[in-house]
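New to this. Explain the following:
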Amino acid sequence: MKNNIVNRVSNSPLITINLEELRLKGQREFFDLNILLENELIVREKKIRDFIRDYNWNKFSNKFVAINCTSEVILPSWTKLLIISSINPYAKKVIIGSMENLETILFKEVIDKMDFKIYKDKAIILKGCSDPKIPDSAYGFLIEKLQGIAKKISYGEACSSVPLWKSN
């Protein structure tokens, strides 16, 4: 008698959500306001307006863009707003903040549009060991949406998951 090997993971009712698959496709770009500083310290409106007039904003076409300053200077709010208004006609999305902030906002938008009814009373695994560019907050957004809908939420892989939440 032969022993048939049965793949219990593929035959289980578990549903895996892989955030890598939810990540919006498209290039990401960081615009460092540092290039607008005079002597790495001062912002002058005229210099910024000249920069805006001469800069090739087309390079941000169809990209997701984060705007921030890597120098530890205090910038007037209008500085960031002028740059956003220049990039906005070209980019898919522009935010003030870091690249991680950008990813967080993009994941929040995707997760908010998801239909979570399909996960009602199901055992869910949030796939772990994902791309390091996926912010932890994205997992938090999923848990927030799944709790009260799913039967059980775990993190990791089907063969070695960590239980996170279980309905009563």
